[in-house]
Every structure is written in C-alpha cells, then in structure tokens.
Design goal:
Layout lengths: L3 E7 L18 E4 L4 E10 L8 E9 L5 E11 L17 E9 L4 E3 L5 E10 L7 E16 L5 E2 L8 E10 L10 E4 L3 H8 L6 H17 L4 E4 L21 E5 L2 E5 L1 H12 L4 E4 L14 E5 L2 E6 L8 H20 L7 E2 L11 H11 L9 E4 L3 H4 L5 E4 L4 H6 L6 E3 L18 H4 L1 H7 L4 E4 L35 E2 L5 E2 L2 H22 L2 H9 L16 H17 L2
Parallel strand pairs: 2-11, 12-23, 13-16, 14-17, 16-19, 20-21, 22-23
Antiparallel strand pairs: 1-3, 3-8, 4-7, 4-9, 5-6, 5-8, 9-10, 9-11, 14-15, 17-18, 24-25
C-alpha cells in the first residue's frame, strides 16, 4: 500500500512536487503579536501507487487556539522564463517549469487527497485580533483517513481501513504581550487599474470596475501593508511602448472650452474614499512625463468644445508651452481638491519620470522645470539609480534600486527609499518565483538596518505583456511574455467576483514588514545597539548590506523568535 506522509514546514519553504522540503521540528514554536498574521505550511505526499491501487482521502481538523485559521491550497503556476541567463547561484531552480505561488482559498471543512509521488502543501494562517491574549497555544493538527477511495478509473469505493489511519501534528504559537507599532514604512506597489478592467472585461469606471477596484484596494491596504497607492488622475505613462497607448484610465474629467480648462473630480473623490476605507494614507500621483527620459507628455484626454479627444501624448514634447498651460490650471486645482478629500500636501507624492539614466539628465531637467514652481512644498520622488540626479538637485527624494543603494547611503541621503524590479536579479533581495523566500523576507531586516523610509515596487497587478502591448492571463503567463522573470509583474492574482488572491510572495513580504515593525518596537523598549547585536548574532560577515546578508531561512526564523523573546522580557 502507498505510504502517506504529513508534516509541517515553515512559510519560507517553497514546496515543489519532486523535492521534499525542510520540515519543522515537532513542537516547533512560531511567534506573533496581537493584530498580526502568522503562517505555516502543512506538507503532504503519497508514495508510488501499485497497479490498481487507490488513493485515500483525509479530513483535516485544527484545534487548540480560539482564533480561526485560514486554509489555502498552494497552487503551482507555470514559468517559462524563471530568471535571466546570467544570475547568481541563489535560485531554487533556473529551468522553466511549475512553481508554487498562488494561494487558493479553500472552504472548510477541508478534505484533501495526496497525489502520487508529489509533495504539495496547504498554507495555514491565523490573523490574530488586536485583543488576542498573550500566551503559548499548542495547535493540534489532525489528518484522519476517510472511508472512501478513488480508484484508478476515477470511481469511488469504500475504504474500511481508513479509520485506523490518523496523523497528529502539533505546533506552538506564541502570542507576545505587546502589539507591534503601526507601520511607519511608506509602501507602494504600483496599482494598475486598467489591467483590472482589461482582465475582467469591464468598462473603465463602470460599477463592475469600481467593485473590483474596491476589492483590490482593500487587499492592498488591509492585507499587504500597502499604504500608498498610484492614483491615475490620467493614464500613467508606465511600461508603454513609444507611440502606443494603454487603456485610458483617467480619474479626472477634463473640459477645454474656449481655451479654458475645467475639471470634474467626481471619480477622484470616489477613488479616495476607497483608499481611505482600505487604509491608504498616501497617494502617489501618476507620472507627469513619459518613462525613461521624460521626453514627452502622458496620454491625456479631454472634452474639447464638446468632443472627446487626446490633447497630450507621445506627439507632444515634455517642455511644450501647451502642456505648461495645462499644468498651471490642473495642478493647483488637483491639490486643492485633494486637500478637501483628506490628503494634504505631505501625503501626496508626485513623479517626474520613471527610471531616468545619465543620458536623460538634460531632458529630465527640462521636464522638472515645467512643474518646479507648481509643486512647491510637495514631495517629488522618482525611481532611479544614478546619484547625479540627487547631487544636481533634480530629485530631492530619490528611490534607488537595491543594487545601487549603497552609493546613496554612503552619500548620506536622508529619508532613503528603495525599490527593486526585474533588473535586480544578482545578489540582492527580490521576490521572483525561482528565488528562495528568505531572499524576499530579508528585506525587513535590511530596511531596518538602513533606516529605510519607503519601499516601491512596480508590479502589484500588471496583467500585460511588456510595454502593455497585449493583455495576458496571469494564471498562464507569469513572465509578461518572456520579458521579466516570473513573479516580477504582479503580487496578487485576479480571483472570482473581482477578489484579489494572495501569493506566497505577498505573504512572505508581509512577514518582512512584521519583522521590521518588531525590530522597531524592540528598539523603543531598549536601544538600537541592542537590536543590532541581536541581528548580528551568529553572522560572520559585517556589516549586512543589500548584497551581503544571511541566505538561510533558519536565520530569519530564529531571529523572529529571538526578537519576540527579547520584547517579552522587557518589563
């Protein structure tokens, strides 16, 4: 008879069908705090079946803690392009194949059936309420065989021996005495509202679209620590082929009548209401100029003397007088409206152009000159990797990539942000399918050490091929059409009824944010040197940097327990 196996693994394991993951030791402890989330995986497998042998069903039951468990199936997704050709060795698999990523919700009670010669897993998580009582809870997990077998031909038959087949596993969940402080890190994952309309095949800003937007914004703010949202006052000029237009997704209705501009902010008001309900404290206004050099204006439409037309786009230079005239009318009106809607100037960030390089210094300077006086007192940030933009005063709030951040840190840039995308594939942390989860979660520790103010990523839900040339199905195409390593373009999946479905990568990133908050709490209770000493325990090479950091999952799991114990020990 086939051998069935069940054991627990940490949230940092990626369970591939053909490889047994590292198991947690029986009775292992995982720590969390009131108001936080904690997760482990239940791994299951079935050995080789003999000819004619049937597969058994198992009922899952979990007890020992008064707080409900969420159970999700870890689904495998295809990756035709898991990584670039020349990358470091800290990858789980560089070959195309199936990778664990999507977390598919299961209804309870759960009945599972292991597959022959495959390891698979369930994601077990607990969202602890703010009033959760401190203490150590022994969580009991039982798998009980069901009196039902699946025959090779798909038919069911009785399994009288199933009642004797039981497996019991246990885990200690320790809830700390103190709640973590609120997240201070400003966190944005670029929100592509047009991609949602395209995937679900609904009209932009139709009632169906608003329903979907509400779900995805709520998931961003309440589940994934995102507190800043890219806001398409006009269609964001991001990852768009030159001369090409993405779906028009413009929150502000613009009227040009006899040479005068007038604005209707009704959609923006509805958007900000969703943001506030979802816990979004900051807005990030769509870039004011095109990507990779700020050469042209964004795609903007208006009703001109009663007719809707495109008034700006690739055919209009960034420094055109007509665009300046528009900005003189638009930006003051936008700022005044956002103030009324509850977002003052310190909570609204602006962009000039995304990822300019050395060759774009002059064009970026000309573009910035168009808006400098109009954005006085407003935070302006841009993702870039060249320190010259900061030194020359062109970007007061640079967001360097994590493989270029050291130069900015060494230069003493205050309130430093950081980002990564597809290009950050060597040595530094990232969250591709093919990378170990520890390479995702270590960002919390590094952001603490570098005292990072904000984190930016471009792909919360980019369901397009590169340059937005065609819509893709993220369940089938996970690499933006062989353009970016799988896992770069989106963090969540479009689920039934417009729900955002989470991923392993999203959950592990959430754990990194909890690590950051726990380290910050311990610092307020002790001092920074105490926290740094704890971080460096057992670390041979110092200092930790974005290219030099512990690669083992065990380091992060042990650090979580050390920090939790240290917090509880402070009287």
């Amino acid at each position: 008879m086939a051998q069935y196996e069940f054991f627990l693994a940490s949230s940092l394991e990626k369970v591939f069908p053909a490889q047994k993951p590292a198991a947690l030791k029986p009775g292992s402890t995982v720590s969390a705090w009131p108001g936080s989330r904690v997760a482990v995986q239940l791994v299951y497998s079935c050995g080789r079946l003999q000819p004619g042998e049937s597969r058994r069903f198992y009922d899952l039951s979990i007890s020992g803690i008064p707080y409900p468990v969420t159970i999700r199936q870890v689904d495998l997704l295809p990756s035709e392009y898991p990584c670039f050709e020349n990358v470091d060795e800290d990858y789980l698999n560089k070959d195309p194949g199936l990778f664990p990523d999507l977390l598919r919700p299961l209804t309870q009670p759960v009945r599972l059936q292991p597959l022959p010669r495959q390891y698979r897993s369930l994601w077990l998580s607990w969202d602890l309420p703010a009033e959760a009582k401190a203490g150590a809870y022994v969580i009991n997990i039982q798998l009980a065989g069901v009196d039902c077998l699946t025959l090779p031909n798909g038919q069911l038959q009785s399994d009288p021996a199933a009642g004797e087949d039981k497996t019991e596993l246990s885990l200690i969940l320790k809830i700390g005495r103190r709640a973590l402080p609120l997240q201070t890190l400003i966190h944005t994952e670029w929100f592509h509202a047009d991609g949602l309309a395209a995937f679900y095949q609904v009209a932009a800003f139709s009632e169906s679209h608003w329903h979907i937007l509400a779900n995805f914004i709520r998931a961003a703010g309440q589940e994934h620590g995102i507190n800043m949202l890219l806001t398409p006052v006009f269609t964001p000029p991001l990852d768009t082929a030159i001369g090409h237009c993405r779906m028009t997704i413009q929150l502000v209705d613009i009227y040009l009548e006899q040479g005068q501009y007038r604005f209707d902010f009704s959609k923006l008001a509805r958007w900000t209401a969703l943001c506030q309900a979802g816990g979004i404290s900051y807005l990030e206004i769509a870039h004011l100029f095109t990507q990779w050099g700020a050469a042209a204006t964004p795609h903007i439409v208006a009703r001109v003397d009663g007719e809707i037309r495109s008034i700006f786009g690739w055919d209009v230079a960034a420094d055109s007088p007509e665009y300046r005239q528009f900005l003189e009318a638009f930006l003051p009106a936008l700022q005044a409206e956002l103030e009324k809607l509850g977002y003052d100037r310190q909570h609204v960030y602006y962009h000039i152009s995304d990822e300019p390089s050395q060759q774009h210094l002059d064009s970026y300077r000309r573009a910035r000159a168009q808006v400098t006086d109009l954005l006085s007192g407003c935070p302006i940030m841009d993702a870039l990797s060249d320190l010259d933009f900061y030194r020359q005063g062109l970007v007061s709030l640079p967001v360097p990539a994590n493989d270029h951040i050291q130069a900015f840190a060494d230069a003493g840039v205050p309130d430093l942000w950081v980002y990564y995308c597809c290009s950050q594939a060597n040595l530094v942390p990232n969250r591709f399918f093919a990378m170990p989860s520890s390479r995702n979660r270590i960002m919390g520790v590094l952001m603490y050490l570098y005292q990072i103010k904000g984190f930016l990523h471009w792909g919360y839900n980019f369901y397009y091929s590169q340059y937005s040339l065609r819509q893709i199905n993220p369940y089938q195409v996970t690499d933006a059409g062989h353009a970016f390593p799988s896992g770069d373009a989106f963090l969540v999946y479009p689920g039934p009824d417009g729900q955002a479905l989470s991923s392993i990568r999203a959950e592990v990133q959430d754990e990194a944010l909890l690590d950051l908050r726990a380290l910050q709490l311990l610092e307020t209770l002790t001092n920074r040197s105490t926290v740094e000493d704890l971080i460096y325990q057992g670390v041979n090479e110092r200092p930790l940097t974005f290219t030099n950091y512990p690669r083992q999952a065990a380091y992060l799991l042990q650090l979580r327990e050390k920090v939790a114990d240290a917090i509880d020990q402070v009287i």
